[in-house]
Amino acid sequence: MDQVILEACCHGTRIAERGRRTKPADRRVIVDEVCRAVAPLDRQVYPTTMLDILIRAPRAGDGDGLARCWLDAGAYYAAINPALFQVPQADGLGQWFEERLGAASDNRPMLVAEKDGQVAGYVLATIQHPSPAAPRNFLRKVGQVRAYVDILVVQDAYRRHGIGTRLMEAVEEWARDRGASVVLLDTYIGSDLSVPFYERRMGYNRRALRFSKTL
After folding, report:
1. How many Å apart are CA 46 and CA 204, to the nearest integer?
2. Which of 38-47, 77-86, 120-129, 145-154 is least confident?
């Protein structure tokens, strides 16, 4: 492992040095090369921190931990764009989550990540079945079994510990077991946390643009 880390870092350093002698317009390419060079380091380090992460169904008593994850996500996005996002009301939020733990089902599960005995994050997903009108639609996905990730949040104290990776791997396995051929999700394009996570870490591709207009 140490040799892999050394080689990746040295290669990344050489590429970065080349970037200093490159025109500004071409430096984005250099940045991408550095990310690919250091990727082996990322793959080697994460497993050592992921061994003690438990992925499980929610249970009584999780409400406060789920609330902390939700509040941290709200604070993160509200700091990026307060015109679009807000910090949720904290008062009674744990009980609000507790009362909804039984709403999960086989077609819309909640998976919880537990680390050090604490709720570190959770994911909520849905299975969408083919539409009877699929032959008349020009979107192929309408005729497929597909999974949609509604929510993925990780408590701030546990970010960069592989929590999101484990949750996404678990929900992909759940979707695969139910015949899904694709997983779909949305995230805020201005997030420098979630966008690289889905694209570089989890291998998701951009396939649509969502527009909005304030009236």
Report:
1. 19
2. 38-47
What pLDDT does 49 receive?
A: 53
Residue 53 neighbours by CB distance under 10 Å? 20
Tell me how far apart the alpha carbons of residues 35 and 126 are, in angstroms, rounded to a whole number: 32
Tokens of 20: 């200093």
Enter the tokens of residue 28.
């984005």
Mean pLDDT, rounded, for 6-17: 41
Task: List Cβ neighbours of 86 (8 Å cut-off, separation of 6 or more).
Answer: 74, 78
Cβ proximity of 71 and 93 under 8 Å: yes
Q: Which two tokens stand for residue 132?
A: 């009877």
To which residue do tokens 């510990």 refer? 161
Superfamily per CATH, domain 52-201: Gcn5-related N-acetyltransferase (GNAT) (3.40.630.30)
Report the b/e string of 139-159 with b at 16+ CB within 10 A.
eebbebebbbbeebbbbeebb
Does this model's pTM top 0.85? My answer is no
Q: Give the model's pLDDT for residue 15.
A: 41
The domain ranges of the chain are 2-49, 52-201
